[in-house]
Design a protein that fits this description.
The complex is a heterodimer of chains A (72) and B (257). Chain A is globular, with a radius of gyration of 13 Å. Chain A has 1 helix and 5 strands, in the order E-E-H-E-E-E. The N and C termini of chain A lie far apart (48 Å). Chain A has 72 residues and is mostly beta strands. In chain B, strand 6, helix 3 and strand 7 form a beta-alpha-beta unit. In chain B, helix 1 packs parallel to helix 8 and helix 4 packs parallel to helix 5. The termini of chain B are far apart. The chains are: A mainly beta (72), B alpha/beta (257). The interface between A and B is large, with 26 and 45 residues.
């Protein structure tokens, strides 16, 4: 069982099992894919392909959604 | 006024008051204020989701995207690259190509970097975005934004969140006369009369956040803004009387003793 990888989710280092897809990770984090944008190593992912994108050691994942805002 | 519709990039809007969703006490207050304002367009920001505490509620649980047009902004972006990145993320997170494009030039004033704004708008429009740019009250820049394909322009009335009201009505008036796309006055409104004034000048809509969310009673102010925008629009369409220095009696002289 050497199957742990380290990834960075929204800047936080997290250990995950290898073989995890982006869709698995969103599910584990209890995040609805239809409400967020996912950026993997600066590439914005197509929602339809999230279950095909495997995470690799050192990947940087950003998960963003809408919050209250006017201008800033 | 039944046929007085606001249409931008083929999309029809019922309300000429657009509102932001920031700075409210909680989502319930946000929801109530927006409902009382009558707005059908709401702006939102794009930020990292909280991955550690998933119990936190989501804005979209309170603001139904089927009922409101969600207009994501690029607030907080100071470079063209950041504005492009946030616009693309907003499109990926949402359902439409609409973006309220902000490229800010300075933290203290939050004034737009208009050169960066035009550059970013050009790129995003090529990618199929419907770009609504937050800009200065500068008619030349407004025209350049239209030239690159913006279907509406959003000039400021005063610095964001300042509540100073319409600081340069003459520039705004020139923009409204010169520019052949809808003009949405964005930022700087402090109270209802400011919103009415913007509409009387000929603005097609007004966008505000702090004036409502920061009021002592946000719900009452939301309603006040709804009436102010409506009254201002009616007055603009009605056509005001010319200003004269001396009095003109409104009662007839005939029949006096």
């Amino acid at each position: 069982m050497d199957s742990a990888i380290q990834i960075y989710v929204n800047g936080q280092a997290r250990a995950w099992r290898s073989g995890t897809t982006v869709a698995d990770l969103l599910h584990d984090l209890d995040i609805k894919a239809e409400r967020v944008a996912v950026e993997l190593n600066l590439e914005i992912l197509d929602r339809a392909t999230l279950d095909q994108r495997l995470l690799n050691d050192g990947d940087r994942l950003e998960i963003l959604g809408f919050i209250g805002g006017g201008s800033l | 006024m039944a046929d007085d519709r606001l249409i931008i990039a083929g999309q029809e809007f019922k309300s000429r008051l657009w509102v932001g969703t920031g700075k409210y006490k909680d989502f319930v207050e946000t929801q109530k204020a927006i409902e009382l304002s009558g707005a059908d367009v709401v702006t939102v920001a794009v930020r990292r989701v909280n991955i550690t505490d998933r119990s936190k509620e989501n804005l979209l649980d309170y603001i139904d995207p089927k009922k409101y047009t969600i207009l994501p902004n690029t607030a907080g972006c100071y470079t063209v690259e950041d504005a492009l990145r946030y616009s693309r993320l907003a499109r990926a997170a949402g359902v439409s190509d609409l973006v309220k494009l902000e490229v800010l030039g300075d933290e203290r004033t939050l004034f737009p970097d208009t050169a960066g704004l035009i550059e970013a708008a050009k790129i995003l429009i090529k990618e199929g975005f419907i770009v609504l740019p937050y800009t200065n009250d500068d008619p030349i820049v407004a025209q350049k934004l239209v030239d690159v394909g913006c279907p509406a322009v959003m000039p400021l009335a005063a610095p964001i969140g300042s509540g100073l009201g319409i600081r340069n009505p003459y520039n705004l008036k020139i923009i409204m006369e010169m520019i052949k796309v809808p003009i949405i006055v964005d930022a700087g409104v402090g109270t209802a009369s400011d919103a009415a004034f913007a509409m009387e000048l000929g603005a097609d809509a007004v966008l505000m956040n702090t004036a409502i969310a920061g009021a002592q009673d946000p719900l009452a102010m939301a309603e006040a803004m709804k009436y102010a925008v409506h009254a201002g629009r009616l007055a603009y369409k009605a056509g005001r009387i010319p200003r004269k220095l001396y009095a003109t009696a409104s009662s007839p002289i005939e029949g006096m003793l």
